[in-house]
Amino acid sequence: MAWGYPLEAHAFRRGSSHQATGRYEVDLIYQKGHQLIPIEIKSSQTYNGSFLEGIQHLKNLAPDRCLGGYVIYSCEEEMNISHAQLLNYLHIGNIIR
Length: 97
Hints:
- By secondary structure, the chain is mostly beta strands.
- The protein has one domain.
- It has 1 helix and 7 strands; from the N terminus they run ββββαβββ.
- The N terminus is likely disordered.
């Protein structure tokens, strides 16, 4: 249960105009106090803007609770992009500190 709603999946409905699955998704949602932290995990070594779609959608659904998220992947360069921090998988411990 999350906020009185059952948490059954990590997918969120998209608007009817989306062509593929009609869903957004994130791999993990970490709750830290009142804050929700979406985490997307990728095996890629290169960044793709689509990595942020699920994070942005959750941010739109709960703007007071989701200020941003993380993309964990095999990058060499870590950086902040828009509403997410890109982290090398070796540094995932930084999320919960």
